[in-house]
Specification:
By secondary structure, the protein is an alpha+beta fold. It has helices at about 1-30, 40-45, 45-65, 65-85, 90-95, 120-130, 140-145, 215-235, 255-265; strands at about 105-110, 135-140, 155-160, 170-175, 175-185, 190-200, 200-210, 240-245, 265, 290-295, 300-305, 315-320. A 6-stranded mixed β-sheet has the order 3-4-2-1-12-11. The longest helix is centred in the first third of the chain and has 29 residues, at about 1-30.
Length: about 325
């Protein structure tokens, strides 16, 4: 009787696993429909999570020698693995950039510091370690601006627009700035930074922006409106161009692909992996929503996430040659 009851329990669990597998696979397919509805677009952020769940299901089906479900699981795993694997290959070759001996290097660091975070020393320590040429901070409040005032010793050029909500922004630069301004792109008029960096006598355009999270239909439209205007500004630029910020969308979103198509820019992650950045405490289960996009004028030397500075976002650190 004990063995029979145990068999029934195992069979019940196995049926549950098959049901969960089917639901997970269907949701992962629905995540490709983000262009049709904002709720489907939210599902697209969890591509890695779908892959992990479906891979576990595949192992279970193989253990139980369930050929039918195992065959479907192979298809499901492949469908979800390919979009992730695309970021581990091909970055340098796709850019077709030739860097000669007289190239110029620039290192940038982006950190959404979290407006309620007071661990100012952690950020300052990371800046001291990484020594970026350009530092972009988002969710900057007046307190954050005051506590990071010492950065002016090494970053003489600054643009700052602190706010007490989650959309203050600041840029610190070792390079001179020209034409700097606070732009209010999109329907919600959130502050972004537009400026030209003068690096070794050459100019490049830098756009730093932080749109709304797409938590409802209105916010989704607001985010896309802001990114649309950023994209068109980047497309119109005749200078080497960088867009950097917490863009509140992941690499597998239909809206992310539209951003690349309109702007003509490329994500520096290509060839370096997905590098998830939010939430910071979830490790590999985080999602990549902090981005650096560049025009074809740049070769990417290194891309990585930095150590946790007490925020819900990990910093993004990028080294470029142009």
């Amino acid at each position: 009787m004990f063995l029979y009851n145990r068999f029934l329990a195992v069979a019940a669990v196995y049926r549950w696993i098959r049901t969960a597998f089917i639901l997970c696979f269907l949701i992962s397919l629905a995540a490709y429909l983000g262009a049709w509805h904002w709720m489907f677009e939210l599902l697209s952020h969890l591509r890695l999570h779908y892959l992990l769940c479906l891979s576990i299901s595949l192992v279970v089906f193989l253990v139980f020698r369930d050929k039918k479900y195992a065959s479907v699981a192979v298809i499901a795993v492949t469908v979800n693995a390919l979009p992730l694997l695309a970021f581990y290959y091909g970055g340098a070759s796709e850019r077709q950039v030739t860097i000669g001996s007289r190239h110029t290097s620039i290192k940038l660091m982006l950190s959404n510091v979290l407006s309620s975070n007071t661990n100012y020393s952690a950020l300052l320590a990371l800046v001291k370690t990484e020594k970026p040429d350009v530092l972009i901070l988002q969710e900057v409040t007046a307190d954050w601006l005051q506590q990071t005032g010492g950065l002016s010793l090494h970053y003489p050029h600054r643009i700052a627009h602190p706010q007490e909500d989650n959309f203050g922004i600041a840029l610190f630069s070792k390079f001179p700035l020209q034409g700097e301004r606070i732009a209010n792109w999109g329907g919600f008029k959130l502050p972004s930074i537009e400026t030209q960096l003068v690096v070794a006598g050459r100019k490049l355009l830098l756009l730093a922006t932080h749109p709304l999270p797409p938590l409802n239909a209105s916010y989704h439209r607001g985010r896309n409106s802001q990114l649309e205007q950023v994209s068109r500004r980047a497309k119109a630029s005749e200078l080497p161009t960088i867009v950097m910020g917490d863009l509140n969308l992941s690499l597998w979103s239909a809206d992310y692909q539209r951003l690349l198509d309109v702007s003509g820019l490329h994500n520096v992650r290509k060839g370096f992996g997905i590098l998830p950045s939010w939430p910071a405490n979830l490790g590999v289960l985080s999602i990549p929503i902090d981005h650096c996009l560049t025009s074809r004028h740049f070769a990417i030397r290194d891309v990585k996430t930095g150590t946790n500075v007490g925020s819900d976002h990990l910093p993004l650190i990028v080294a470029l040659d142009f």
